[in-house]
Amino acid sequence: MIDFIQSETQFFILCLTTLFTLINPIGIAPLLVVMTERFSKDEKVNIAKRGSSTAFLTLILFSILGSVIFNFFGITIEAFQIMGGILFFRNGIKMLEAKVGRSRTTPAEQEESQESDDIAISPIGIPLIAGPGAITAALLLSSQTPGIYSYATLGIAILIVLSFVYLILRNGDALMKMLGTSIMRIIQRLMGLILMVIAVQFVINGTVTVLKSII
Prior knowledge:
Blueprint: H1 2-23, H2 25-36, H3 41-73, H4 77-97, H5 107-111, H6 115-129, H7 132-143, H8 150-170, H9 172-179, H10 181-214
């Protein structure tokens, strides 16, 4: 029993530290805030729920069936990296061109709120939170499980990390008020540039890996 507890504790710490490092909720916090700042408070709560839930389900799914899914569809991590890079780049351009948020008062403007559902799933849920690194980690960790109960340990670690991400998304307004509109505008454009650079690096990493395998 003691050996079992020690084994699961060590595996839990490994899962928690690995996922926390790769998802990096503190590092992506500014990105999450500026990507959702134009939405209302209720929409931000909805984005927080849907984005975190999407990432959670994705990581759980790949933890259990990841290798099967990739092999069945002939998908590689490199392809996922390139796809993520394209999504990041598109969203980075939007952040650079974004205007100050405003209230939606007309029916046409209210229809724009549907975008909150889209952005929650992609690119926030996938691949910003559940990106290639996190998915790869979930695959590798699931292959290193000491026992059958370790899948539950991995699931708990994923839940804890994504709960932290959810709190960051949900409380973005407090950060905005603390920094002020002008600072947020500057951060927004800087994050847009950074996001585009990350996007290019994703594409480069995926392309280089593919070329190396060919050569």
